[in-house]
Design a protein that fits this description.
Helix content: 10-25%
Distance between the termini: 34 Å
Number of domains: 2
Low-confidence stretches: 1-5, 188-192
CATH superfamily of the largest domain: ZPR1, A/B domain
Strand content: 35-45%
Shape: globular
Oligomer: single chain
CATH architecture of the largest domain: Sandwich
Order of helices and strands: EEEEEEEEEHHEEEHEH
Structural class: alpha+beta
Strand order of the largest sheet: 12-5-10-7-8-13
Largest sheet: 6 strands, antiparallel
CATH class of the largest domain: Mainly Beta
């Protein structure tokens, strides 16, 4: 695939009313991206020139088969792995019993494993009422950010629209989901959960 095919194709670029400041200063850009190993993705970015409000939506154009993508995070370099998560995908870290499930308002996103670790840290007080368990998980997440805690990062997507771009491709495992596994997944508001580690491991 040539470098030309990687360039986004702008479909629309226009101005609308900002939902934050109510001025007609919100620039909306709809662009089609060709991402290696993933396919076509529509990214809609909005930014207000007046108040600074901004938002990004990611939509997968293509649909694949139900898949589970697993990657063993061993050091700091792995934290930079790019995660392309569709609006139907579930994120799991079984060693810590952490999980993000899609809900009715879920949106696709492109971020990194580090981004998810930081998100879990920010929301840990809400996810876990048990102080001892909460601090145990917090310490491990902080160690993970330093590359000193090994864990498995898993994406399960019933529509097969998610992907990872990782530093060590040989350590990336992609496998089909069984029909009974697909039925257990929630489809497409974002739900973050702290589950018993045993329960999350049983589901992977």
């Amino acid at each position: 695939m040539s470098s030309k095919e990687y360039r986004p194709k702008v479909l629309n670029d226009y101005t609308d009313v900002c939902p934050s400041c109510l001025n007609k200063s919100l620039r909306i850009v709809e662009a089609l991206h060709e991402i290696p190993y993933v396919g076509r993705i529509l990214i809609i970015s909005t930014k207000c020139d007046r108040c600074g409000y901004k938002h990004v939506d990611v939509f997968n154009i293509e649909q694949g088969k139900p898949i589970r993508i697993s990657y063993k995070v061993k050091d700091v370099r792995d934290l930079s792995a790019r995660i392309i998560r569709s609006m139907t995908a579930t994120i799991k870290i079984p060693e810590l019993g952490l999980m993000i499930e899609p809900g009715p308002l879920s949106q696709g996103e492109i971020t990194t494993i580090e981004g998810y670790i930081i998100r879990f840290l920010d929301l840990l007080d809400l996810l876990c009422e048990d102080k001892v368990l909460r601090e145990e998980i917090r310490k491990k997440l902080e160690l993970a950010l330093e590359g000193k805690f090994t864990f498995t990062f898993i994406i399960e997507d019933p529509l097969g629209n998610s992907s990872m771009v990782v530093p060590r491709a040989k350590d990336l495992k992609i496998e089909p989901l069984k029909p009974d596994e697909v039925r257990k997944l929630k489809y497409g508001e974002l739900i973050l959960e702290l589950r018993r580690r045993e329960d999350v491991k049983k589901e992977t």
